[in-house]
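@channel sequence for tomorrow's demo:
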Amino acid sequence: MHYNLTNRVVLISGASRGLGAAIALELGRCGACVAINYLTNQREASIVADRIRAAGGTAEIFAADVRDEQQVSLLSKKVSEAFGPVDILVINATGPQPPASLESLTWQDCLDQLEFFVKSPLLLVQSVIASMKEWRHGRIINIGSEVFELGVPELSSYVSAKAAQLGLTRSWAKELAPWGITVNLVAPGWIPTRRHDAVAQSAKDAYTRQVPVGRMGVPEDVAGMVAFLASDAAGFVTGQKFAVNGGNTLG
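structure tokens (generated this afternoon):
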């Protein structure tokens, strides 16, 4: 199902590949003007933009490290100059999540994850919130993870940062609701993308056996949920976490 996002401006952080690229393609199909943020993968970001344009949509690419205050401010300015104020913000950018036992975990490990899942959301939301309040409309969608419910061992820095991201979602939802701005979080399960190419098939099979629907997800599963939350159909939905994981966190 495609929702009507015609004339909406969407900024997606970390959209050159994986889940971000799938989200960009889906929102482009829905008619949004798509601002594709990337850090280093200019070629891949350009391919995503070209695919959106080839399907009749509108897209441009924008380089920025969304953990950096000045770069985020400039990013927001460039997107507004290209398309107008941002109506829909999808916070997706992520980085490596190296495992670490409790004995070897460092505070810097924790800070590295908080940079992506607390600092980056804060900077991005602050960069677009004035125009959303002015127009009394906005959609802010965090991309979280099921790891918060699963409590994955040796990933406590990542798990705790994702928990903090959910906390931001809930608090900001209440704070921004009077302006017609919704804030939600989509929590995917393990959805293989290129970053998982080196993972053994046995590990993927073991995970799949736990999933009630009997399969791993695909990026388009997440993109469909994001499109709904970005649309007018979700105007009465805020402060919620939506698990897109085939029921893996049931019970």
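heads up for whoever presents: Strands lie at 9-12, 33-38, 58-63, 88-91, 138-143, 181-188, 241-244.
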